[in-house]
Amino acid sequence: MKRLAVLGSTGSIGTATLDVAARFPDAFRIVALAAGHNVALLEQQIRDFRPKAVAVAEQADAAALQELFPAIEVMSGSEGREAIATHPDATTVVAAFVGALGLVPTFRALTLGREVALANKETLVAAGELMIAAAKASGGSILPIDSEHNALHQALRVGPPGTARRLILTASGGPFRTWSQEALATVTVEQALAHPTWRMGAKITVDSATMMNKGLEIIEAHHLFGMPEDRIDVIVHPESRVHSLVEYADGTLIAQLSVNDMRFPILYALAYPDRLPTPFGSLDLVGVGALHFEPADAIRFPCLRLAREALRAGGTVPAVLNAANEVAVAAFLQGHLAFMAIPAVVEAAIEREAARTHALTSLDDALAADRRGRALAENFVAKFPPASGGSP
After folding, report:
1. HSE-up (13 A, CA, CB side) for residue 272
2. Helix (H, G, I), strand (E, B) or coil at 360
3. What residue spans define the domains of the chain?
4. CA gap 232, 214 in Å, rounded
5. Are the CB atoms for 392 and 125 separated by under 8 Å?
6. Which residues make Cβ contacts (< 8 Å) with residue 180, sequence separation at least 6?
7. Neighbouring C-beta atoms of residue 126, cutoff 10 Å
8. Closest residue by Cα to residue 73 from 53, 49, 46, 89
9. Which of 130, 212, 256, 321 is deepest in the core (most CB within 10 A)?
10. Which one of 3.90.700.10, 3.40.50.720, 3.30.565.10, 3.40.50.300 gives the CATH number of domain 2-145?
């Protein structure tokens, strides 16, 4: 039985993970939970799963929960998150915090040799070299939950190691796949959050709309699978049924397909190397009818280019890319920044970072770069006009 610590238990990935665990009580046991501010949902999760320890963002919330549940350990803040990630009873840590919040807890889990089911792509973007090195040194492992990298993980097990020629990430294209460049300048928050095929949190949904999520995934795939940037491609696949592909040296393409439901990659990651019978249905290919593929347009969606540039620059530039994007997306969601100003802010920040050398040799380097990226982005956001609404 795998014993799970779930970081970000009240978010979309966290709640899906708990749903999967509940379906397989003989395979998975929840031992620790970490959440942010959704204390009401965490309280229900504690009642349902009876973990040994929990953590929340605020000390006041922790104190209230401790009164309700005196038999469990309740913590708060960054120390609480790290304690959940390193809980001695946990064999597997599900890293589902959004953004840079999961950086330190995930690193701590890997240094202890834990199996990490990773849904937080920003962790590898900001400190991929450090995470992979920590896992290798300790005997830990990273199992991707992101549907695209989960698909690559599966497809890469078809051929012998070293025979993959190319990784192909698929992108839905988001809600603005067919919009003109002029129309993109008028995007509203409501339009950006209307994803055509997936239901996700606000930040990742906006990343899908700008295609920054796919740019971050290029960096993530580079670290997870040791593939050079120029051998990682992105294609648009509106149906979101083919989650990614691997092209082997002999020209064979291996694709992974499933229903658009994050419980599928979560179940794979939690059960690995076994496969458990899914209770979540299966893909009806006849019902799907047709699958379409298009090139990814890096002109209309410059975040793809920016992510590649950051990866090629190396060092702390990817960490600044990620931090600046978080700030810019938050400003857009608050109505303080236009949609197409998001990549403009990110580009300004990484250009500033790339102009000077900042080595990435420790987690402190990554955290300092994250702070620099946020400060740079906040400065640049103030120089752009706020968002305005429109239609395609």
Report:
1. 20
2. coil
3. 2-145
4. 11
5. no
6. 300, 392
7. 31
8. 53
9. 321
10. 3.40.50.720
Q: Are 103 and 82 a contacting pair, CB within 8 Å?
A: no
Instruction: Quote the tokens at residue 172.
Output: 């839905």
Confirm whether pTM is higher than 0.90.
yes
Distance between CA atoms of residues 38 and 28, nearest Å? 24
Spatial CA neighbour of 173 closest among 138, 198, 149, 150? 198
DSSP 184: H
* Cα–Cα dist 209/195, whole Å: 8
Q: Is 41 helix (H, G, I), strand (E, B) or coil?
A: helix
Q: Both tokens of residue 148?
A: 């695209």
Q: What is d(CA 240, CA 230) in angstroms, rounded to the nearest whole number? A: 23
Contact 281, 239 (CB under 8 A): no
Question: Please, where are the H alpha helices in 7-50?
Answer: 12-23, 39-49
Q: How many CB atoms lie within 10 A of CB 225?
A: 17
- From CA 349, how far away is CA 266, in angstroms rounded? 34
Q: How far apart are CA 392 and CA 378, in angstroms?
A: 29
Q: Cβ neighbours of residue 339 under 8 Å, at least 6 residues apart? A: 184, 185, 186, 187, 188, 192, 209, 210, 332, 387
What does the pLDDT look like over 74-97, one tens digit per residue?
Answer: 999 999 999 999 999 999 999 999
Instruction: Tell me the pLDDT tens digit for each residue of 342-389.
Output: 999 999 999 999 998 788 999 999 999 999 999 999 999 998 877 654
Cα distances from 113 to residues 27, 121, 133, 363, in angstroms, run 20, 19, 11, 17
Query: Could you give the maximum distance between any two Cα atoms of the chain, in Å?
Result: 62
Q: Which two tokens stand for residue 5?
A: 């610590």
Q: Give the DSSP letter string of 119-140.
A: --HHHHHHHHHHHHHHHHHHT-
β strands within the chain, DSSP E? 2-7, 28-34, 53-56, 73-76, 92-95, 115-118, 141-144, 164-171, 232-236, 242-248, 253-257, 294-295
Decide: helix, strand or coil at residue 296. coil
Q: Is the peptide bond before 302 cis (omega within 30 degrees of 0)?
A: no
